[in-house]
Hints:
The complex is a heterotrimer of chains A (about 375), B (about 60) and C (about 170).
Chain A (H helix, E strand, L loop, with lengths): L2 H26 L6 H13 L4 E8 L5 E7 L1 E5 L3 E5 L10 E3 L2 E6 L2 E5 L21 E2 L4 H27 L7 H20 L4 H22 L11 H17 L3 H8 L8 H51 L4 H39 L14
Antiparallel strand pairs in A: 1-2, 3-4, 3-8, 5-6, 6-7
Helix pairs in contact in A: 1-8, 1-9, 2-8, 3-5, 4-5, 4-9, 5-9, 6-8, 6-9, 8-9
Chain B lengths: L4 H29 L4 H25 L1
Helix pairs in contact in B: 1-2
Chain C lengths: L1 H6 L2 H136 L3 H17 L1
Amino acid sequence: MTYITKFSCAVLLFIGNFALANDIVQHSEAPEKDTKTEIKEYIDHHLQDSHDFTLFSSTDESGEVHHYGFPLPVILWDGGLKVFSSSKFHHGEELAEVDGSYYKLYHGKIYKTDSSGTISYDEAHGEHPTNVRPLDLSITKSVVMMLVTGLLLVWLFSSLAKSYAKNGSIPKGIGRFFEPIVLYIRDDIAIANIGEKKYKKYMPFLLTVFFFIWFLNMFGLTPLGVNVTGNIAVTTALAVLVFLLTNFTGTKDYWKHIFDPLGDGMPWYGKMVIYIILVPIEILGLFIKPFALLIRLYANMTAGHVVLMSLIGLIFIFKSWVGGPLSFGLSFAISLIEVLVALLQAYIFTMLAALYFGFASEEHDHDDEPELAHL
Amino acid sequence: MEIPSVIGAGLAVIGAGIGIGMIGGKAMEAIARQPEAYGKIQTAMLIAAALIEGIGFAAIFAG
Amino acid sequence: MDKLVNDFSFGLFIWQIILFLLLLFLLRKFAWRPILNAVNQREEGIKNALAAAEEAKKEMQNVTADSEKLLKEARTEREAMLKEAREIKERMIAESKEQAKEEGDKMIKQAQAAIESEKKAAVADIKNQVAELSVEIAEKVLKEQLSNKDKQLKLVESMLGDVKLN
Lengths: 375, 63, 166
């Protein structure tokens, strides 16, 4: 990395902190609520997906909040497809009326309601609304970011691919940075875990998943304020794909390992007793593996965002000459660590996916393999 | 008396923390003993740490 | 867990699956396949080039060994030729020496023979001359002495006696 890149990264992180800080202070100036609750709500809001792309908000002298950004299309399936702009919600302040039905945006989710916007709550907890939630297929902020990342990836890597054709197999420009990563994934993740024979089949998935997660993680650190990989639905989708790919490409040996792990090592009457416990554990392991994968990515990214924003929020709680710079310095340091975490989580996700694919596609003896499969 | 689930989650996280710490420490020792196997040790360490971390997170969200 | 389930947005899940599969398909077609192929090709190329270099090196070594062998052969040949030449030279020298010696011996013999015959001729000549001289002397003496009979006889006697002594 050149000094220029380093410098621009640092500047970006600085600006990121300032932008978030600016956002929080605008909110905290709203009357009635105390700063701590305000910050907590802000963080909660940030962690969630949203139906409009707000870049920043401000409060004018009369206490009115202005949001700057652009609305996104809302697509609902509620006895028929309903498409309208999210500007109808006015950031949750108003009801949206479409074809005679009323919808309310409440804590980032759309509920069906009546013309007066009644929300009835769960009696036991008093937190969750019991209103009907129509199937929400909106193009949310996260979907937009995924589209942007997808386009960026396609553009970046197809131009890299083209530069090979033009340049006689020698990468050019940004390709010199990405090619070693592609090779690392091939040599140290795919070949190391899956094996020389079968790694080729999984390479597109591994590469796509790595760069997709990495880029989205990095976008999460920019002032755009997106938290795509810290969204449970996104990580679940990725884990489901890993699960399907693992089990649909599983060899005979892989299934034998699950349903007959001891093989010929024991007579059938001995196996019966052990298998009552062992086989369910193995089957459970099938689901626990991708579950751990989705929870890990979600929790790491969410935790990173929470820590970062809490530290920035501290500035407005301290409101002093000592506390401000201190929490700013801390949040800057955490930002740097988060850059590392962004890469590390993408690496670990890819690595573990490759490991699971490796288990699924192995065909020889299992005796000398590490028994990580149980976890 | 009912113990809050948060405490259970905290205990689980302590366990996971100790586990990851031990993995890290042992990996360091291993690398010091065999610097040429650095890459392999690091990979194995990350995998093991990631697996334990998963348990920790599961505990946090269960709690 | 409750929070997780509550946070889960099914719409986003579906979008993610669709978009990811689309991305996977596009990248596989337009990026990963060409990139990996290009990299493989390049690696293959490097491997081949290395193998070719190794081959060339081996060949080079072979050539060097060959030339060394040739050189060695040439050197031994030269040595042999030199040796032969020296032998021939020595033989020639020896032969010519022998020949010269023979020739010399022959010449010496001839010379000796010539000397002998010359000597014989000279001796014969001298004898003739001596005989003539003696005859002349004898004539003169006889002419002078034969005026006296006694003296003649005496002379004859003494001369005869001399001749015997010879």
